[in-house]
Amino acid sequence: MPHPNDPTLRSFVPVDPASDFPIQNLPYGVFSTTDGLAPRVGVAIGDHVLDLWELEQDCRLEVGDLGVFAASTLNPFMALGPKVWSRTRARISELLRHDNPELRDNPHLRQRALVPMAQVKLHLPIAVAGYTDFYSSKEHATNVGVMFRGKDNALQPNWLHMPIGYNGRASTVVVSGTKVRRPRGQLKPPSAEQPSFRPCRRLDFELEMGVVIGQSSPIGERLSERQAEDMIFGFVLLNDWSARDIQQWEYVPLGPFQAKAFATSISPWIVTREALEPFRVHGPAQEPVPLPYLQQKQPNNYDLELDVALRAEQMNTPVRICRTNFKYMYWSSVQQLVHHASSGCAMNIGDLLGSGTISGPEKQQRGSLLEISWNGTDPLELARGINRTFLEDGDSLSIGGRCQGNGYRIGFGEVEGTILPAT
């Protein structure tokens, strides 16, 4: 049987060559329709969703734990482990192949199991157990350091020795399309004698990837590179909304808190690690060489193009404001997970790791408005008479991402959010 990543595979379901969801992808999500059934697990194929619960009911798809695809999150399926993930993806690929009549020539099952994407509502795909955000782009960290500490002290002394991160709020991780309310918080501009409590004035986005952890590790144990890789179920697009002025006042001495706690948006489709396998690349050379527990024996970065589009409320079409690549990350997702568990920290099914803002070496590759506008000193022109230094009420921002294969692409859809005024 051909491997699900075989670039020659074709599905009997029509798939546009520009689609994010060819048969080589098969990302998982949770969806509902107007049929009255509760949210359940599906896979994206072209402009359809394949209902895995219907296939399970018809005994076409068996994973050894009846009912996992009727769940409202992917956590029960992820708990079954990497061998089941791989076997299930191969079986789904087989059912969708153009030369397999099993589903193709069964009109009743096909009608039940293939739902047009336009008719579904997509939900948060996982129950987020915990959320950790990293700070792993050397370009981003350098840009921010230059802004606030000067060129000679841009990177903190520890930055080149370990992935820096902080624990965020799992309770405010939301799915794409969820509107984001402008947060209030304590602000104290340098010119003010006392802080005040008011709406954020410097609201920003952060272009990130999210790593979905599909297996747990016990408290007190460390992880090897291979163990960490096996625990990664897949990846999502992630926007870690940021209130820069709240952050500026609160982050000393312990880092971000309320400035990042109000919302983190993720895309609804989880692209599996296996689907991204053909796009693995080595990351940037790490100097100094990391301590032995963080050294890598294989390429753990991905050649994954990312872009950001921004549309002001008075504009008809969005404008692309950033285009970068996940391959630039200094610390890989595997290194982040290895380091996270290195103290004996237990990891749980459904944990979400944010990559940190993904910026590249060029100006057009900066992954936040803080960098694009250079902390508000260089406004971004969206259209005639419409400029931005930070996000305003009514602005809509979307992030897209894709890996380009030979005649197909592995895409993530998008993660989108629109800013609502503060209450």
TrEMBL record:
Cofactor(s) demanded: Ca(2+); Mg(2+)
Positions of Ca(2+) binding: 133, 206, 208, 240
E.C. designation(s): 3.7.1.2
Residue ranges of every copy of the Fumarylacetoacetase-like C-terminal domain listed in the record: 132-418
UniProt pathway annotation: Amino-acid degradation; L-phenylalanine degradation; acetoacetate and fumarate from L-phenylalanine: step 6/6
UniProt keyword Coiled coil, yes or no: no
GO molecular function terms attached to this record: fumarylacetoacetase activity; metal ion binding
Name of one Pfam family that matches: FAA_hydrolase
Residues at the active site: 140
Domain of life: Bacteria
Record's protein name: fumarylacetoacetase
